[in-house]
Design brief:
The complex is a heterodimer of chains A (487) and B (153).
Chain A: E1 16-21, E2 24-29, H1 34-40, E3 47-48, E4 55-56, E5 69-72, E6 75-79, E7 90-92, E8 111-120, H2 124-135, E9 140-143, H3 172-188, E10 192-195, E11 198-207, E12 210-219, E13 222-235, E14 239-241, E15 254-256, H4 257-265, E16 274-278, H5 282-293, E17 297-303, H6 312-319, E18 325-327, E19 329-335, E20 342-347, E21 360-363, E22 366-369, E23 373-375, H7 378-383, E24 387-390, E25 395-398, E26 411-413, H8 423-440, H9 447-460, H10 467-481
Parallel strand pairs in A: 1-7, 8-9, 8-13, 9-10, 13-26, 15-22, 16-17, 16-22, 17-18
Antiparallel strand pairs in A: 1-2, 3-4, 5-6, 5-7, 11-12, 12-13, 14-23, 19-20, 20-21, 24-25
Helix pairs in contact in A: 2-3, 2-8, 4-5, 5-6, 8-9
Chain B: H1 3-7, H2 20-25, E1 27-30, H3 40-44, E2 50-51, E3 60-61, E4 81-87, E5 90-97, E6 108-112, E7 118-130, E8 133-141, E9 150-152
Classes of the chains: A alpha/beta (487), B mainly beta (153).
The complex binds flavin-adenine dinucleotide (FAD) and iron/sulfur cluster (2 copies).
One iron/sulfur cluster is lined by residues 28, 44-45, 47, 49-50, 61, 66-72, 83 of chain B.
Chain lengths: 487, 153
């Protein structure tokens, strides 16, 4: 099910690519991932639960949840939601055990890259960090595991809030293009190197101003290993969408809201025809509206809290399209055996307990969960950065100082990975980390710019919607002040 | 708790309403009542009618200064600005629209209120393209001028 026409996006006719799925011939399009091509062909079951053998589809759509692993050209465990489709490939579902590959792989020796700064993740935070550090004279390697740069921005078709400086009024997709333009300019001048479809898999050595990271780049499903040696590293890995517990939450058709946004706005594929949205924060409200723009019906939005968490303006534009928002309501269970056929929603009392007798059955083929995000911190944990559980930041985060430096000297964090917030603040945090890294490496002394960035951040967080990040960041930076030796 | 925090729907009492004269001139109603970090409407207004204490404060429109030019309508990322101009028993509503199909002047469309209910038929008077946001003016009965906030083509 491809989107034929769209008020914001132009999905042009693209080259057709033939491939096979479990020996069945299928056709996808240039620019598809394997999973988006399968979805367009109506195939949403990609794997099976190892324990229960129940069918599963992808949940996150950005390479983080592992429920899209398939065998491609004989190579097992390919993350099909971020692996580009190529002509003539053989895609197969894996059994309980993926099996050892009979295809040739990992026959190449590693390549060494030496730079001043390694930036992990090319979302708004990583892009700004790379541009800032490179503009200040540092050599930069920017690595992202998705096929394109931009992180979450590449699916955000709505106009952004903020001030002119943070490009308010510009659509997220266009902010991504603008930032990429700046990046490519610096790349042409030789200040930055960009690697996509490449994952930073871990830190393998650490001394003062000398960090060694392993990076695996994929090309046509074959992996190449890089030994990246850098003087500073900025970790901007973003976040993962949260799951909620209810019977049937792993059925194909239950997605993270961001995953559905990726599928429809990046790949032009419809997730289904009728959606139940769970969560009325900004993500739930925005994605609901974008579903309508893609020609997909939204049955309703249910929100467990007594009030709508997102901005009123986002709720209002959904309501005037006729979509109801039910606060103090949640999903009880999913209906359907091997795919979503409906759901039971239920009212909650003031203690957030289901009210008996208030159950309502609704018909839908897709359920989107927009119940918050958790910072991606596994890489930081592996490096050994000091972490702490900060509920207001969305989970466990690396403790960092005002300049975004973690407990490890030369290792910085920025954006959602440092606490869940917004693209606007992620961009400024990225600039701070990039600039601070360049300063510490002696590439620049621009303290004035650094204080300007801090003022910009403060201003964006000053309102009531900035309260949570304000509390989170105060806690985090206070923890960073607790004297512990920087290692 | 305000009702709109639960429902997502504003009532006229949540808004500063223009006087009859101001309505006849045509002014922008800013349906943006929360403190959110946003200010493009302030920059968009050529006569500096919209002001804000700081970027988090809700915008305030000086109806005396506002000319009803609708520049702000296509800029606002919240799609929260509507120009209302009363003309006798009729009223012109200028609203942002980001759906397909895009109507043409002269078309008759459904006029929807803040909960998406079709209240009456409206005639499209003007369609202006602002990037990918269409700024559309429709004519409705003056009696529903403060209720109509969307169209269905
Ligand atoms: C549906 C939705 C709507 C939103 N709407 C708005 C909005 O209106 N306004 C706003 O300001 N914000 C909005 N946000 C929030 C905003 O998108 C995020 O806060 C922002 O994208 C965070 O930027 P980031 O750079 O930290 O992370 P991301 O944009 O998530 O980028 C992280 C990148 O890191 C890469 N990565 C992760 N791990 C590795 C690794 N080990 N190796 C290589 N690469 C890796 C990922 O592939 C990804 O591209 C929205 C978010 C969502 C999900
Ligand atoms: S309608 Fe024109 S004059 Fe009035 S507030 Fe908007 S931009 Fe300013
Ligand atoms: S531009 Fe729109 S959303 Fe932003 S402050 Fe102005 S009225 Fe509110």
């Amino acid at each position: 099910m491809r989107i034929q026409s769209h008020p914001i996006l132009d999905f042009q006719q693209r080259k057709k690519l033939a491939f096979s799925f479990n020996a069945q011939p299928l056709v996808g399009e240039q620019g598809d991932t394997i999973a988006s091509a399968l979805h367009a062909a109506g195939i949403t079951t990609l794997t099976h639960s190892v324990r229960y053998d129940s069918p599963r589809g992808f949940f996150c759509g950005i390479g983080k949840c592992s429920s899209c692993l398939m065998r491609v050209n004989g190579i097992p465990n390919v993350r099909t939601c971020i692996a580009p489709l190529h002509e003539g490939i053989r895609v197969e579902t894996q059994g309980t055990y993926a099996g050892l590959p009979d295809a040739e792989f990992q026959t190449h020796s590693k390549t060494t890259i030496r730079v001043d700064v390694l930036v992990v993740g090319a979302g708004p935070a990583g892009l700004c960090a790379a541009v800032e550090a490179a503009s200040q004279g540092a050599t930069v390697l920017l690595v992202d595991e998705n096929p394109s740069v931009g992180g979450q921005l590449i699916k955000q078709t709505h106009k952004f809030f903020g001030s002119k400086k943070e490009r308010a009024g510009t659509r997220g997709i266009h902010i991504a293009t603008e930032l990429e333009g700046e990046l490519r300019g610096l790349e042409q001048q030789g200040h930055v190197r960009v690697m996509t479809e490449a994952t930073v898999i871990g830190c393998y050595e650490r001394r003062a101003e000398h960090h060694r990271f392993g990076v695996v780049q994929r090309e046509q499903y074959t992996s190449y290993l890089y030994d990246v040696q850098c003087r500073a590293a900025i970790i901007a890995c973003g976040a993962m969408e949260n799951m909620v517990l209810f019977p049937g939450n792993d059925l194909p058709g239950v997605y993270g809201a961001g995953a559905v946004q990726t599928l429809m706005n990046v790949y032009g594929v419809k997730p289904g025809n009728r959606v139940l949205m769970v969560g009325a924060g900004n993500v739930g409200l925005i994605v609901s509206y974008q579903l309508l723009q893609a020609g997909i019906a939204v049955d309703r939005v249910v929100e467990a809290a007594p009030i709508i968490g997102g901005y009123h303006v986002h709720a209002a534009k959904l309501r005037r399209c006729g979509v109801p928002i039910h606060t103090s309501h949640s999903i009880k269970e999913v209906l359907g055996d091997d795919k979503v056929q409906g759901a039971v929603v239920v009212a909650l009392d003031e203690h957030w307990r289901p009210k008996p007798g208030s159950e309502e059955r609704i018909t839908c083929d897709t359920i989107c969960l927009a119940v918050g995000l958790t910072p991606s911190t596994r890489l930081l944990a592996q490096i050994g950065a000091h972490q702490s559980f900060i509920p207001e930041a969305g989970g466990t985060v690396a403790v960092h100082d005002q300049h975004m430096q973690t407990s490890i000297k030369g290792v910085y964090v920025a954006g959602d990975a440092s606490g869940i917030e917004e693209a606007s603040t992620a961009m400024i945090e990225g600039k701070i980390a990039g600039l601070a890294a360049a300063v510490s490496l002696g590439r620049t002394k621009n303290q004035k710019l650094l204080s300007q960035y801090h003022r910009d951040l403060e201003q964006l967080r000053a309102g009531p919607f900035g309260e949570k990040p304000r509390i989170a960041k105060t806690k985090i930076t206070q923890l960073a002040e607790v004297p512990h030796a920087r290692v | 708790m305000r009702a709109y925090e639960r429902t997502g729907v504003l009532s006229p009492t949540d808004l500063v309403l223009p006087t009859k004269q101001q309505l006849e001139k045509g002014v922008a109603i800013l349906e943006c009542v929360q403190e959110i970090p946003c200010n493009p409407c302030v920059d968009a207004c050529p006569v500096h009618a919209i002001s804000m204490k700081d970027i988090n404060a809700p915008p305030v429109n000086d109806y005396e200064k506002c000319t009803g030019c609708a520049k702000c309508v296509g800029v606002c990322p919240g799609l929260a600005i509507f120009v209302v101009k009363q003309q006798g028993t009729k009223a012109l509503i200028t609203l942002p629209y980001e759906f397909l199909p895009v109507p043409s002047p002269g078309d008759v469309v459904q006029a929807l209120d803040r909960v998406g209910a079709a209240r009456q038929q409206a005639t499209v008077k003007k369609v202006v393209k602002r990037g990918k946001t269409m700024v559309i003016t429709v004519e409705v009965d003056a009696a529903v001028a403060m209720d109509i906030r969307n169209i269905r083509v």
